[in-house]
From TrEMBL:
Domain of life: Bacteria
Domain CBS: residue ranges: 75-134
Pfam families in UniProt: CBS
Keywords, ordered alphabetically: CBS domain, Repeat
Keyword Repeat: yes
Entry-linked InterPro entries: CBS_dom, CBS_dom_sf, CBS_domain-containing
Record-linked PANTHER family: CBS DOMAIN-CONTAINING PROTEIN CBSX2, CHLOROPLASTIC, CBS DOMAIN-CONTAINING PROTEIN YHCV
Protein name stated in the entry: CBS domain-containing protein
Gene3D superfamilies found in the cross-reference section: CBS-domain (3.10.580.10)
Transmembrane spans: none
Length: 141
């Protein structure tokens, strides 16, 4: 079923500034139970930082998470984004084309307003799928 992204996205995505330490970013990911934070400065999307980025790009290369910044290891533009008014079909096509699991959602001026994940789409399109079940499950702490 095709809907508008704003109907299924996770609004109010977690965000850090480019100068935030990886320690701070990881702590925010843990608090919000997310695997990605947007790296923003004011209303500009500077990049995307995932838990994998922290492990592979920083820890895997011996960088200190207390002194290494989010801006140093995040994925920088050009980033794949969608508008909150785009269709979920369009968003899914972009995710497939660019092999990404999550995609930042931006308003017309480029200001980030949320994130759309494969799990969000699974809950919409295949509510009985394993991915939808995993998405609905409580975090394992």
């Amino acid at each position: 079923m095709t809907r508008v992204v704003r109907e299924v996205m996770s609004a109010g995505a977690a965000a850090v500034e480019p100068m935030a330490s990886l320690d701070d970013a990881a702590r925010l990911m843990s608090e919000r139970d997310v695997g990605e934070v947007l790296v923003t400065y004011d209303c500009d999307l500077f990049g995307v930082l995932t838990d994998r980025d922290i492990v592979v790009r920083a820890l895997g290369h011996g960088l200190d998470p207390a002194t290494t910044t989010a801006g140093r290891v995040c994925t920088h533009p050009p980033l794949v984004t969608v508008s909150a008014d785009d269709t979920t079909e369009h968003a899914a096509a972009l995710m497939r084309e660019h092999a990404v699991r999550r995609i930042p959602v931006v308003e017309r001026g480029g200001c980030p307003v949320g994130v759309l994940s494969l799990g969000d789409l699974a809950l919409l399109d295949e509510p009985q799928s394993a991915l939808a079940d995993i998405t609905r499950a409580a975090p394992d702490h």
